[in-house]
Amino acid sequence: MLVHAAEESYQKGIGALRSGRVTEALALFEAAISLEKRFGSSKPQARYLSHYGLCLALGRRELHEALRFCREAMAIEEFNPDIRCNLGQVLIRTGRTREAYKVLVGGLGLQPDHAGLRRTLRALGIRRRPVIPFLSRGNLLNVALGRLRSRTAVRDAKRRPRSVQAELPAAESAVLRYR
Question: For the chain, what are the domain ranges?
């Protein structure tokens, strides 16, 4: 059952979030959840929970609570790409990039042209292979050599003329942009 007042508060929250007013959006999403609980069903709508969790992560930086709300929304409505996008953004903020990648790619499987999912995946960046492939990524030798490789790639990119940078393969130029 859709509660009109809760939906109105949610829509205002979306507008505030798009305008960058995260604290206002957080209050509006919280109001939508409480109105839905008071007049509607026992569980609020998944999109209310998801956006509330995203605002918790963005505004208050309460990452564990934000993750809890976004996961609860995902459990209710697994096939909604907006909910997956919000969960992916919160997972990135908590440092769980591998899990975020899986959630975001799963969302693209549902809706390949979703702008938010694509933007979040681009922001996540492209990881290169480890320098020594048979060692784990976290191995100290791989970490040190990877940092060295990254520094030399950035330094070399700064020395190259623009015309040479345009000829780089897409993956290498993407790595240079996000470093």
Answer: 4-124, 140-178
Cβ density class 33-61: b for 16+ within 10 Å, e for less: bebbeeebeeebbbbbbbbbbbbbbbbee
Q: 């990648």: which residue's tokens?
A: 101
pLDDT tens-digit series, residues 27-42: 999 999 998 888 867 7
In this prediction the pTM is 0.72
129-179 residue pLDDT tens? 899 999 998 999 999 999 998 888 767 767 766 554 444 444 444 433 333
Quick check: 1 and 35 in contact, CB under 8 A? no
The letter for the amino acid at 137 is R
Fold assignment, 4-124:
1.25.40
